[in-house]
Amino acid sequence: MWNPLKCFVSPQSLRDAGVLGMNRRNFDVIAKYNNRRLYPLVDDKVQTKKLAQAADINTPKMIGVIEFQHEVKNFMSIVRDRKEFVIKPAHGSGGKGVLVITENRGSEFVQPSGKILTYHDVYKHISNILSGLYSLGGKYDVALIEELVHFSDIFKNYSYQGVPDVRVIVYKGFPAMAMTRLSTKVSGGRANLHQGAVGVGLDIKTGKSLKAVMYNQPIKLHPDTQADLSKIEVPNWREHLIIGAKAYEMTGLGYLGADIVLDADRGPMMLELNARPGLAIQIANGIGLVKRLEMIDKCFPQNLSAIERVDYVLKKADYMEGVL
Amino acid sequence: MLRKYLSTRFVLTVLLFLSLIYAAFSVYYKITYWGFKFTPKQTSDVWTVEAHINFEPTGEPIKIFLTTPKSSEQFKVLEESVIAEGYTSKKIPSKDGVSAKMRISSPAKEGIQDVYYRVMLFDNVDAKGKTYASKPDAPEKPILDEQTEAVVKQISALAKKQDGNRVVQIIKLLNQVPADPVVQTFLPVKKTSKETMEAIRTILSYQGIPNRIVRGFKLEENRKSFAPDLMLEAYLDNKWMIYNIENAEKGLPDSFVLFQRGGESLIDIEGGQNSSVKFTVLKSVTSSLSLAGKRAKMTGHKSWFDYSIYNLPLSEQNTLKWLTIFPLAILVIVLIRNVVGLKTMGTFTPMLLSMSLIKTGFWPGLICFAVIIALGLTIRFVLSKLNLLLVPRISAVVIFVILIMQLLTVVGYQFKLEMALSAVFFPIIIMAWIIERASITWEEDGAANAGREIFYSLVAAIVTYFIISDEFIRHIMFAFNEINLVILCVVMLLGTYTGYRLTELKRFAPLVKEK
């Protein structure tokens, strides 16, 4: 007989597994270590980018910002010398409103799909960004023009459309957990796990895949490309972690999620930061966050530099696993 | 870190404890000294009728004569009072023994005057069946011109073809649809109850049947500001009998209280002009709460009572009765979101929906809601094709919601679907917001997620609805309003709840099952 209660587990067993719940994340972690004053630093991509460049964190360079409607016509002069660029809303989320141009022909612009846009198409797109069409709160937004990332081919077979990024959870400056999100046909090319993207937990020491889940269920192969998900190994892993660790000093946020993409030529680059990273990463890793956070609270030394913290984590990673 | 977290929770726990002690004491106090009850039923047959008289003084000394009810075969007057600053009041018994008058007077005053008369009535079980009757004199024959007299005679003859006694015959004839041509010359087709009454009385008087007007109220809960209902009383076959002048039903309807018999006017004001009288009827709790004031006075606890909400005018009490239930609804929403973990749209959208459901009724409300949302979403999808800017887009959705509501109401009226009429009770902005939000979720996360969000919001609204529509809970929350303070502390304490949400026990289950 089908028993609906079977899908539920006891709170005690979740506690034993060290699962961080939403209430506890909000009350014990975010409210304590993330000062609300700091949120604009990560919610506004322009500010994030400026900070990142100042902190010497590798990130796609900002070409220009368009803040006001009367500046929209200036975008031609901003991108004049650029062959390729990306226009995105500074407060957008989930990839909405991102316009990628791979070829600038002066009066025409070519998208990756080969579609050709005119000056007016781009003009209208930027106007829409400014009016808040893509920012959820409906607030007036600004348009950010930045360099195009040349995604590394490493992930090519692991993703249906979209671009896989690596999400690193950083607690008090120490990388605590990581995963990569692979979009699927079901998720519509998006990287949100609840929409059906594949989440692959990554070993914090090596960047190798631990396990993969889709809709909370473990899977072995990517549903669209049939690539073996257990074979994933993110190159330049230490640099990924360093970017995450540096974001702590950069923003002052005690608990943050850093989204990092791998550029074929320039290595790992920080794309954006999140002050309220979700909890699904625990499912992708098959590991609860609580014990790692507690260990960082209790045993990890303070006053280390970002690189020292990453090395400390790499050294202690076996120990971190062992706790669980 | 640990200390700070402990202290927040500790302080809140202490506060909760204190509020519980206060509430327990207050409940005890109200029961002992004010006579409040836990169940609403025990007092449900006590009614308070409040007349709010409003007028402009002319500058002369003010005298108000208000006709007031006396204990009758159906209702007994428990207590009556006049609330008006600087006025003195005196009761004058009237000759007929059914109604009495209250004289409320004061020296000359300035500015708009508000005078409240409050009477408490309860079911007079002992006196049932005893009828009051004395042989009246034959009525004065009305003086009619020739033409009218002929019409009245014709009507009297026509009426004989109807069933019932002579009075019933006349009432039925005058209310016939379509009206007889003869009747039409006597009484306009679109008649007010006053005109009907006048016509019936003329005919009865012409026939020599004693008759008089009866004014009173049908007691229904939370009736606000209405004019008295008119009934006819006629003396036939050696007894007085009350008739409904619209359907000729005999006898007093249930829960109808007589204010006045005979032709005297309800209110006379000397030294005042532009007067208006509004009546409010309130049942149960509040009535017993009005009793409480008297009780409090007798036991020497009056001053506390003066500063409680139960001493306010009844229309304010009716509003507060509504407000005191809200904290409970808020608590339910907090539980649903933070302990159960359902994702609803916005925090208080479900609460506003449940309030609308109270006004519309459960099923009509749900159906109307579904229709408005479905139509609204369809329209919103067309709008999203147009790629409008944000503010005009949302404004357009709001206007569309208003149009849908108009449409539903008109269609509902034409097809006699009363449920469609309830569309107007939904808050427009909230509906527009639900539509906007749902369509954004739909575009970003797919239809399933949008549907789930609407569904969860509805579930939360329905749960809240069943709680705030329960009469017992409403009684408790109003009569013992100190519970609001306890709820406040519980809500704040829930703000420190760090345990798992019910939905997380399922969401994170894979993390446990592997072990």
Explained architecture:
The complex is a heterodimer of chains A (324) and B (515). Chain A has 10 helices and 14 strands. In chain A, strands 12-11-10-9-8-13-14 form a 7-stranded antiparallel beta sheet. Chain A has a 4-stranded antiparallel beta sheet with strand order 1-7-2-3. In chain A, strand 11 and strand 12 form a beta hairpin. Chain A is an alpha+beta fold and 324 residues long. The model of chain A has no long low-confidence stretch (mean pLDDT 87). Chain A folds into 2 domains: 14-41 and 153-323, 2-Layer Sandwich (D-amino Acid Aminotransferase, Chain A, domain 1), CATH 3.30.470.20; 61-146, Dna Ligase, domain 1 (2-Layer Sandwich), CATH 3.30.1490. Helices cover 30% and strands 22% of the residues of chain A. Chain A is globular. Chain A has helices spanning 11-16, 22-33, 39-43, 45-54, 75-78, 119-131, 237-251, 280-285, 290-298, 306-323; strands at residues 62-66, 85-89, 99-101, 103-104, 108-110, 116-118, 143-146, 165-171, 174-182, 198-202, 209-214, 217-218, 255-263, 267-274. Chain B is of the alpha+beta class and 515 residues long. Chain B folds into 3 domains: 46-130 and 266-287, Immunoglobulin-like; 146-216 and 227-261, no CATH class; 322-510, no CATH class. Chain B contains 19 helices and 13 strands. Chain B has a 5-stranded antiparallel beta sheet, covered by helices on one side. In chain B, strands 4-5-2-12 form a 4-stranded antiparallel beta sheet, with no helix packed on it. Chain B has a 4-stranded antiparallel beta sheet with strand order 10-9-7-11, with helices on one face. The radius of gyration of chain B is 30 Å and the shape is globular. Residues 124-131 of chain B have low confidence and may be disordered. The chains are: A alpha+beta (324), B alpha+beta (515). Chains A and B meet through helix 1, helix 2 and strand 12 of A and helix 12, helix 14, helix 18 and helix 19 of B.
